[in-house]
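Hello again, I could really use a second opinion on something today. I've dropped the whole record in just underneath, so have a look.
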Amino acid sequence: MFNLEGIPQSLAQFVPMLVTIAIITTILWAANWLLLRRTSLTTESRLPGQVIMLLLSAIALIALILALPVSESTRGDLLGLLGLVLTGVIALSSTTFVSNAMAGLMLRSVKSFRHGDFIRAGEHFGRVTERGLFHTEIQSEDRDLITLPNLFLASSPVTVIRSSGTIVSCEISLGYDVAYHQLSPLLKEAAINAGLQEPFVQVLTLGDFSITYRLSGYYSEVKHLLTMRSRLRQEILDTLHGADIEIVSPTFMNQRQFNNGEKFVAKPKFRDPLESQNIAPESLIFDKADRAEKLRILNDEREELAETVKELKEQLEGQDESTSSDLKAEIFKCEERIEKLENIIRIAKEQPN
């Protein structure tokens, strides 16, 4: 017959396991919400939370095995099996999951680029918007978001445009009938009119029918890099056409007849002062990257102020009343600024991407 007296004793064996499951579920749910589910978190700020959740999940699995109502030998076999499974998973996914995570940690330690920087990796070019444990997100010239695995960035050459300035260049091919000593001053004038500093001209190739020149100059405001490249080309067109120089290949052929001495030169347009007041397209193209860069600057300022407050509080010890009051006033000013920065950062993070 079925023994009803043994039911409570059998159920009592599962009580520790059920209690452990309830505790684990509560802890993991709370940790997941605090570390990953808040809408104010960005990919960059989720990185420590992702690592912590991985560790908590592993600990929870071990705790669940220890709470199972089985013998010590069976429990030891289960822990050994768990170790083998984890080792196999890590070995099989080492080329993707673990490799991307290690590459992400390496990129953060090297600090070769930051939020808002222009980078080029392979055929991809754009501004950095987010940096996570497994991937880095950039915003392209078409305003699209491109996700690049960290392993790709760690194993490929990455070009970072320096925030202090870069060289803007443009190549142009002209015939041998245009003298270099005549062309070089005109190209430099075009670069200066475009807003470049210290322009210089290089001769790249001497082709069969034309010469390839490169006009370059220093530009400090890298945020408007795309606009400057376009403006430089516009100034080259206006300057050369204004000097009555044709920008056509010597092999140029047109089927319609034209008068002897007629040149195919477009009429230059004189620059309108109001054009410089137009909003640069970079503000629309790289909107998310701009916001990421501003958040980084605000976070850096907040950390610097927090360090200053810490140093001022250390200086308070052993100071007289007059000096102490000045230090307290400075501390209050810094803490007030920190509070304002935290409110600005919080509001910015809550805005939709």
About this structure: The two ends are 67 Å apart (CA to CA).
